[in-house]
Amino acid sequence: MPELGRQLRLFRRAGLALVLLTGVLLFWIEPVKCFRSVPFRIKLASFFVLAVSPPLRTRLTTILWWALWLAIIFASRWIGYF
Fold first, then answer.
1. pLDDT tens across 21-63, in order?
2. Are 71 and 46 in contact (CB under 8 A)?
3. What distance in Å separates the CA atoms of residue 8 and residue 2, rounded to the nearest whole number?
4. How many structural domains are present in the chain?
5. Which of 16, 39, 64, 72 is 20 to 30 Å apart from 24, CA to CA?
C-alpha cells in the first residue's frame, strides 16, 4: 500500500491545487455569501484537517481521509443552496 501512496502523490497534490484555486475564485466572486455560509465553513475546516493530516498509514486514517473528502464534496454542493 505505501507504494500506491507514492504513485498517487502527484494526483493528490494536483487535486489539492485545483481545489484551492477554484475555492479562491469562488470566494473572490462572492465573499459575503461564502463567509456567512455554514457549508463553506465546514468545507474549509475539513480541508484544513486534510491539509495538515499525516500520510495514510492506518485503516483509521484512510477512513477519516475519505470521510473528510466526502464532507468537502457535499459541503461544496450545499454552498449554492444555503
1. 988 898 898 888 888 889 989 988 998 898 887 776 788 888 8
2. yes
3. 10
4. 1
5. 64
d(CA 10, CA 15): 9
Residue-by-residue DSSP string for 10-78: HHHHHHHHHHHHHHHHHHHH-HHHHHH-HHHHHHHHHHHHHHHSPP--SHHHHHHHHHHHHHHHHHHHH
Is 81 strand, coil or helix? Answer: coil
Its pTM surpasses 0.85 = no
Grid cell, residue 70, equals: 466526502
Which domain, by its residues, includes 15?
Answer: 2-79
If residue 78 lies in a helix (H) or strand (E), which one and from where to where?
A: helix 59-79
Q: Which three cell numbers stand for residue 5?
A: 501512496
